[in-house]
Design a protein that fits this description.
single chain; 390 residues; alpha/beta; 2 domains; 12-stranded mixed sheet; 4 helices
Length: 390
């Protein structure tokens, strides 16, 4: 009896030991699976975030970049980044904001575990929205590829074309704007040509004074109000440009921006916001001749609106040109973007162009210029993000 009891006791202890071991093994396996899944989640999330940050870096230097990444190797996984030009609204009371949606999806290979949930690739997605550049045409002062507050004339072989163009000169159909918009009158002279897009989205290629451009792409004797400062051209405080914003950006020097009181101090090519504040007097102060090779937003202005740009030399500028008084867009100079004149009292009859110069509306060039300065207003590019979901 004693022997049998001993055997039963030993057997019972063995059974109990096996049960305890099984419980421990199961617990250890579950913990291991939890660690594996947690590692995969953290890795996948980090890689997806990395994809968004890589995209933000590229967009900071080229707001038009939409190539993205396809299964880019990152930290043992892969990430695919794509974009969608869309709109964003913070809530039902907020205005719509033109935005770029960034979709970053990370793929993390499985790590060996007993749980079949981990026996497959795992994917994680991060979505971010950032504001897109804009053409300040609604609340702003870009109402034609040429916008002025005084009588203007065109001469020589200058071409003014409000049809939309990319930065290589290719026309983007049916999305342009007026060729000329002025509060006074236009006199088309010489062999100059004018084209544009009317409010119905119909494009008209540039033509000379005979037979003359279609009247639907020219606006003369337009009523006010008219913007009186560079910031109001951008739409003012409503668009995020309270008075002094552009000057402050230029003085910051960020993204190649420059603030000077004499054009002799400029460094080329122009980038960011270039603000030339000529001396404030009652007489016209000339920047003559003008070299404005580069891109961004170029401003020539003073409080009396007597800063005068004259005889623009052969070069190419991409973006938005805002000047108090501007004349003689000369030779083979080309603007991709738009030109806005502020004064209602030019120093001479405002002969905008002669030679073979071209002023071609380009929403891409303007959006590129405005998107690059948006992050400067709020200090860092990362803070430019409107929303971020993981």
């Amino acid at each position: 009896m004693i022997g049998r009891a001993l055997i039963l006791t030993i057997f019972a202890m063995f059974v109990v030991s096996m049960m305890v071991t099984r419980v421990i093994t199961r617990s250890t396996t579950a913990q291991n699976d939890n660690v594996v899944r947690h590692f995969q989640r953290v890795t996948g999330r980090d890689i997806a975030q990395t994809g968004v940050n890589l995209a933000l870096r590229r967009l900071a230097t080229n707001s038009l970049w939409r190539t993205g990444y396809s299964k880019l190797g990152v930290s043992g996984g892969k990430v695919t980044v794509s974009f969608l030009d869309t709109v964003f609204r913070r809530d039902s009371q907020s205005p719509l904001i033109a935005a770029v949606k960034i979709i970053s999806t990370a793929y993390v290979p499985f790590i060996s575990a007993t749980d079949t949930v981990s026996d497959r690739d795992t994917s994680f997605t991060t979505i971010a929205y950032i504001p897109r550049g804009f053409v300040p045409s609604g609340n702003g002062g870009v109402r034609g590829v040429i916008t002025t507050h005084n009588r203007i004339t065109t001469g020589g072989n200058v071409t003014i074309d409000g049809r939309d163009h990319d930065t290589s000169g290719t026309v983007l159909p049916n999305q342009g704007m007026f060729g000329v918009w002025t509060t006074d009158t236009l006199i088309q002279g010489g062999s100059s040509t004018i084209g544009g897009t009317n409010i119905r989205g119909v494009d008209y290629a540039p033509v000379g004074k005979t037979p003359g451009p279609d009247t639907s792409i020219i606006r003369q004797k337009q009523p006010g109000p008219y913007p009186g400062t560079p910031d109001s051209v951008m739409g003012g405080a409503v668009n995020g440009y309270p008075e002094g914003t552009l000057k402050s950006i230029a003085q910051s020097g960020i993204n190649g921006s420059q603030y000077v009181t004499s054009p002799t101090f400029l460094t080329y090519p122009l980038r960011g916001v270039t603000y030339v504040e000529l001396p404030d007097t009652n007489a016209a102060i000339f920047w003559n001749p003008c070299n404005i090779r580069g891109s961004g937003i170029l401003i020539c202005h003073n409080a009396s609106k007597t800063a005068f740009m004259k005889d623009i030399q052969p070069s190419t500028f991409y973006g938005l040109l805002i000047a108090d008084d501007i004349a003689h867009i000369n030779s083979t100079f080309t603007v991709y973007g738009a030109v806005v004149g502020l004064t209602s009292n030019p120093s001479t009859v405002n002969d905008l162009g002669n030679g073979n110069s071209k002023v071609l509306f380009s929403s891409i060039a303007i959006e590129n210029a405005t998107s690059l300065i948006k992050p400067i207003i709020i200090n860092t590019y990362t803070n430019k993000v409107l929303a971020w979901w993981e």
